[in-house]
């Protein structure tokens, strides 16, 4: 196992959403995927239930089908946010926003070509559940997914958290044989070797705008 030379703080601050720098032409070795999944399993889960599951998709037809669902989700989302922005202001989106749109459009155009798509799942559906149950359910899969992404970054792989295929979750469940009534999909993580090793911390708000000491 070869890991990049990153200390823990560098790993945490440079695990970016990788879209334009996913190597679409190089397969990802199975042992690397399994190492990342082993580490993901060390994440916490409510009541230590570990009712998570990961569908690792390498089959080209299934990837193409998921890519198509993702693209439909992206187009719906893009229409909605464009309409919302135009209603609120006539100003052009900022350069930062345009940069993310371009990168997201590229991923939407190529999702089905990414060598591996990982769909993390959690047992039980929360549509009708009270808030503490929802929090426990989602909180029992999200740390494992982030651990998976950190482990991938440490191995020179790129990932991006995506959710837009969930606009068509039922069709994705049919494609992958996931029992939709019992299991929720939490995300779809494209996984590929990253083109280049260097990534930088992303822009974030100053701490004093998001942290409340003792009182909101
Ligand atoms: C819950 C969640 C859903 C997201 N969904 C998408 C998505 O569907 N498509 C996409 O391209 N990026 C998606 N992202 C990635 C965000 O756009 C990204 O994290 C954000 O722009 C910050 O960039 P960074 O991760 O490189 O710091 C998602 C991230 C999260 C946490």
Polypeptide structure, described:
The protein is an alpha+beta fold and 216 residues long. The chain contains seven helices and five strands. It has helices spanning 8-14, 30-40, 60-88, 95-110, 131-139, 142-154, 169-176; strands at 52-57, 116-123, 157-159, 183-185, 189-193. Strands 1, 2, 3, 4 and 5 form a five-stranded antiparallel beta sheet that branches. The chain is globular and about 50 Å long. It starts with 7 loop residues before the first helix and ends in a 23-residue tail after the last strand. The structure holds flavin mononucleotide. Flavin mononucleotide binds at residues 16-17, 100, 104, 107, 160-164, 202.
Descriptive keywords:
binds flavin mononucleotide; alpha+beta; 216 residues; five-stranded antiparallel β-sheet
Question: Would you kindly provide a brief summary of this structure?
Answer:
The chain is an alpha+beta fold and 216 residues long.
